[in-house]
């Protein structure tokens, strides 16, 4: 590990930096500290779990500007990249290949990889997925209606829907859907030990390796199969990179969408006037989903590293300094979203940063939108009397996790 | 300000510039302004028609995360650039 002299000097002269991630206190609002930081210290020092210092950026304009600044790197292997969750060395090895794919690349490496994939993620392709998503959602709701009350909506709906979508997209055997659900679930739950988590991450790595090997032997007509064929024509990936990319697609689209499903349902149930708007006017659902994405911003903050000195928010970030760009704070910046704390499905704002911004902006965003629209519409149409089976405040929200969500969402009707 | 905000440009003649080499296929343009933008099979932005009233394009320009859509001053008519930008690097 390299020692960053700027940090050492700054820490000594300015005293303690607050810990990051900053926990939420209200289940429906980002960390309360963000309000004061946006007003008074929009770029300020925080300490991540492994002890490193980083700059937390909280204003919309600054976050957006840095995400398009070529001096800001997403390199997952930079020693100063501020990791928001402690990882074991083995887990780090398991995810190393992910860092060599898409999400950890800067230009000029990022563009060619991204371009190999975007044909599978156009708006048109997302629309073509709708019948499949609808079928999955219908099956889940059939099972919910046939089963006992109350039911945990995370297990019954929020996990199976994105799992089914991703298995279809990647061309995985349908039976393997359960493995994805189990391993993601293990990654998410706080009650799971670091060893168990490491074991599931190793299992997933081994599974994806077998999957990619099978596609290499016999490329099928799905995203991974097409990638293997394209890669023969224009070699960009070795086997390990393909595995990393497949892991990224599996993980990036799963937890995030599952979280948005359970939080979105909770958010609409707790705001009956807003729910009435979307159930009364199916055309309002598209923008309601945008507002739910903004309101909950499940990806709270993402790490970057400055590769040159950058002036931002009244401070000079030095080359080599770690950055944490908070989408959750940016999306509640009242300079851009008046009354940001109000869930307003009529807001009509598409310029939120729930999917990020810049070259890494979520590749699966249109699939995610399709899933969320179909889930909310189908659920509230088919179970109009849906309500929470427990008090909202007592529900197991993942308040300290960098990907916000719910472990369990008991509902009845 | 560094980089600048293309939406802030107030010149009397502004032009929509489409750099397909920068497009990362997020689809924000197609989603927000479907009568002006489309995506090709390979996932990159397409302009459906010309000429373009730049007012019409403003929302998409603001939403585009990659810099592939810009408003530039002083030229007339949209410019579609099919050059692959990656060799030069992005920025
Ligand atoms: C509501 C659901 C989702 C949310 C909130 C979300 C959020 C995000 C965010 C914030 C980023 C930016 C990462 C960065 O800047 O470093 C991102 C990137 C990404 N997302 Fe999503 N995502 C969602 C669903 C999906 C789905 C369904 C897929 C795939 C099927 C997906 C695949 C990806 C990939 C591959 C990237 C990396 C793109 C790149 O680096 O070029 N996501 N997502
Ligand atoms: S919004 Fe920009 S990056 Fe996204 S598809 Fe349109 S032009 Fe390409």
Automatic annotation (TrEMBL), chain A:
Residues 1-20 are annotated as: Disordered. Keywords: Heme, Iron, Metal-binding, Monooxygenase, Oxidoreductase. It comes from the Bacteria. Belongs to the cytochrome P450 family. This is Cytochrome P450. It comes from Micromonospora antibiotica.
């Amino acid at each position: 590990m390299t020692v960053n002299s700027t940090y050492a000097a700054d820490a000594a002269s300015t005293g303690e930096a607050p810990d990051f991630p900053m926990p939420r206190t209200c289940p429906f609002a980002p960390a309360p500290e963000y309000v004061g930081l946006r007003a008074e210290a929009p770029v300020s020092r925080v300490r991540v779990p492994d002890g490193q210092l980083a700059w937390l950026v909280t204003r919309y304009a600054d976050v957006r500007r840095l995400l398009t600044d070529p001096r800001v790197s997403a390199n997952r292997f930079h020693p100063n990249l501020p990791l928001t969750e402690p990882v074991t060395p083995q887990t780090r090895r398991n995810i190393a290949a992910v860092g060599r794919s898409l999400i950890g690349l800067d230009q000029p490496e990022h563009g060619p990889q991204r371009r190999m994939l975007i044909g599978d993620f156009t708006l048109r392709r997302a629309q073509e997925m709708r019948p499949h998503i609808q079928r999955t959602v219908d099956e889940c709701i059939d099972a919910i209606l046939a089963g006992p009350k109350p039911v945990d909506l995370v297990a019954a709906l929020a996990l199976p829907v994105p799992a089914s979508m991703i298995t279809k997209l990647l061309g995985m055997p349908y039976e393997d859907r359960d493995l994805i659900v189990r391993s993601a679930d293990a990654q998410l739950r706080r009650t799971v030990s670091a060893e168990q988590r490491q074991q599931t991450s190793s299992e997933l790595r081994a599974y994806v390796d077998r999957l990619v090997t099978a596609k290499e032997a016999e490329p099928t007509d799905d995203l991974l199969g097409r990638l293997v064929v394209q890669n023969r024509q224009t070699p960009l990936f070795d086997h390990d990179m393909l595995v990393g990319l497949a892991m990224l697609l599996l993980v990036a689209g799963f937890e995030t969408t599952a979280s948005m499903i359970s939080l979105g349902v909770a958010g609409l149930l707790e705001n009956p006037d807003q729910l009435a708007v979307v159930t009364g006017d199916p055309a309002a659902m598209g923008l309601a989903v945008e507002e739910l994405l903004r309101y909950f911003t499940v990806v709270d903050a993402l790490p970057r590293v400055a590769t040159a000195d950058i002036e931002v928010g009244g401070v000079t970030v030095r080359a080599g300094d770690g950055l944490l760009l908070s989408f959750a704070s940016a999306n509640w910046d009242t300079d851009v979203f008046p009354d940001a704390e109000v869930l307003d499905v009529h807001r009509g704002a598409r310029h939120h940063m729930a999917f990020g911004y810049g070259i890494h902006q979520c590749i699966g965003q249109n699939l995610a939108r399709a899933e969320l629209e179909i889930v909310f519409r189908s659920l509230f149409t088919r179970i109009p009397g849906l309500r929470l089976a427990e008090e909202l405040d007592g529900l197991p929200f993942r308040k300290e996790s960098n990907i916000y969500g719910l472990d369990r969402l008991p509902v009845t009707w | 300000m560094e980089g600048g905000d293309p939406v802030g440009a107030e010149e009397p003649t502004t032009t929509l510039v489409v750099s397909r080499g920068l497009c990362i296929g997020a689809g924000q343009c197609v989603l927000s302004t479907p009568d002006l933008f489309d995506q090709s099979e390979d996932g990159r932005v397409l302009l459906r028609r010309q000429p373009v009233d730049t007012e019409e394009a403003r929302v998409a320009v603001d939403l585009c995360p990659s810099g592939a859509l810009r408003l530039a001053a002083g030229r007339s008519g949209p410019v579609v650039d099919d050059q692959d930008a990656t060799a030069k690097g992005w920025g």
